[in-house]
Design goal:
single chain, alpha+beta, 32% helix, 11 helices
């Protein structure tokens, strides 16, 4: 997809920003209305429509179908307008459907693209244990070591004491032992209700106040996170997590290794990655959608792996012009 020394490839991430903006603008109408299904369908409809205009021949590797039984944007679906390049696509029309439905923070629309055959396909195995850090701690983490050992390594890499570090972890009963160990080690803890992609990206954001993500979350989200962190200079490691013995058996029969460390290269094996996300509700990573009658404002984060370029895009969208151009009413 890329020849070193040649003219840089087209920045698909800028086109992908249009995709996540559309999903965010339509889904944002559902904030606080308690309708998770309606919000998700609106985001899927908008995302699929705009994906169809992007110059690429895409196959969805990480889609909605496996986890949400969505009728569109399912794993294996072909997206884009059919032109080159051939790419894998990962979508999450709403990362944080529950926060959106109940008017809470940190709901995002996101999409990632990488060369064909380079994204990890988790199939039906939806959970993985993760550790994610920003650039300063890249190369020092090891998911097979204890949380305490990782905290010591991260603190050393950042030139701090463990007590200075802030961890972030999903508030789930399955994390009780992890939280107990973090407390014993002396690091600070932020427990969040949802949204571990945004949490992982915060580790790579200067002045976010977050140093490391721990915990078991979605495998699809782990792949999307890896695409983003490649460009942002961070690192994520994971191991597939089986919820019960039957899932473990089925996974092993299908050829999945639950003991293998999934590195960045396992999750996405190319530097030529693109990632875009747009805020739906307000959060620490991005501001949410604002509606003003004749226009809508959005904030997006757009990254490109080859160049390491990170852009924040504050956009104003004319509702009249959008409605004249699109089959979807914003």
């Amino acid at each position: 997809m890329v020849v070193l020394g040649a003219t840089p490839t087209r920045n698909l991430a800028l086109e992908l920003a249009r995709v996540t903006e559309a999903a965010a603008m339509l889904a944002g109408r559902f904030m606080g209305r308690g309708d998770k299904e309606g919000a998700d369908q609106a985001a899927v409809n908008a995302m699929r429509l705009v994906l169809g205009t992007v110059d690429m021949n895409g196959v969805i590797v990480i889609g909605e179908g496996e986890k949400d039984k969505a009728p569109m944007l399912f794993n294996g679906e072909i997206v884009g307008n059919g032109s080159q390049p051939d790419v894998d696509v990962a979508v999450d029309p709403i990362d944080g459907t529950r926060p959106l439905a109940f008017g809470r923070s940190n709901s995002l629309a996101m999409v990632a693209v990488a060369p064909r055959g380079t994204m990890f396909d988790p199939g039906p195995f939806l959970y993985m244990n993760k550790i994610a850090v920003g650039p300063e701690a890249k190369g020092v983490i090891n998911i097979e070591k204890s949380i305490t050992e990782n905290l010591i390594a991260i603190a050393r890499a950042k030139g701090r004491a463990v007590e200075d570090l802030t961890t972030i972890i999903l508030d789930r009963p399955r994390h009780d032992d992890m939280i107990a160990e973090i407390r014993k080690a002396g690091a600070r803890i932020r427990e969040i209700p949802d949204g571990d992609v945004a949490a992982a990206l915060m580790t790579a954001q200067p002045n976010s106040g977050v140093d490391v993500l721990f915990g078991i979350g979605g495998t699809p989200e782990g792949v999307i996170t890896a695409c983003a962190l490649r460009a942002m200079g961070g690192e994520i490691q994971g191991k597939l997590f089986a919820r019960d013995e039957d899932e473990l058996r089925r996974g092993r029969e299908a050829g999945y290794d639950f003991d293998k460390i999934l590195t960045m290269n396992d999750l996405v094996s190319s530097e030529d990655v693109f990632f875009a996300t747009t805020g739906i509700t307000d959060g620490e990573l991005l501001q949410g959608v604002r509606y003003y009658g004749d226009h809508i404002t959005t904030e997006s984060l757009v990254v490109r792996g080859l160049t390491g370029t990170i852009r924040r895009i504050n956009a104003t969208h004319s509702t009249d012009k959008l409605d004249n151009l699109s089959s979807i009413h914003y």
